[in-house]
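User: Last request for today: this protein with S-adenosylmethionine, please.
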Amino acid sequence: MEIGVWKGGSAAFMGVEIFNSGKKLRYDAIDCFAPTREFGKFTEDIYEETKANLKPLTDLGVVNLIKFALNPSRKSFSRLSFASS
Ligand SMILES: C[S@@+](CC[C@H](N)C(=O)[O-])C[C@H]1O[C@@H](n2cnc3c(N)ncnc32)[C@H](O)[C@@H]1O
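Assistant: Here's the final one, the structure of the complex with S-adenosylmethionine:
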């Protein structure tokens, strides 16, 4: 899982490695895709751009792109089902 996917650079790298490994793994790639301040500038919503960048890997089912704004609270994390209760 990656939280904060941006334009998908790391997700693409990991997705290719997962695919080449032949293992049955899924890489959950999460980002709020809301305008935020990144690398010193405010960004636009880049969801469509990231979706296009990762399309070959999402089509293969290796990368699962999720538009979601995480709130650093237990409730938010448990909604994604990766926090133990
Ligand atoms: C520095 S970029 C990540 C770079 C990316 N990991 C890479 O390897 O190219 C940080 C990302 O975190 C996302 N982000 C910031 N706060 C977030 C939140 N609360 N929930 C989800 N994504 C968030 C931003 O939208 C941004 O795309």
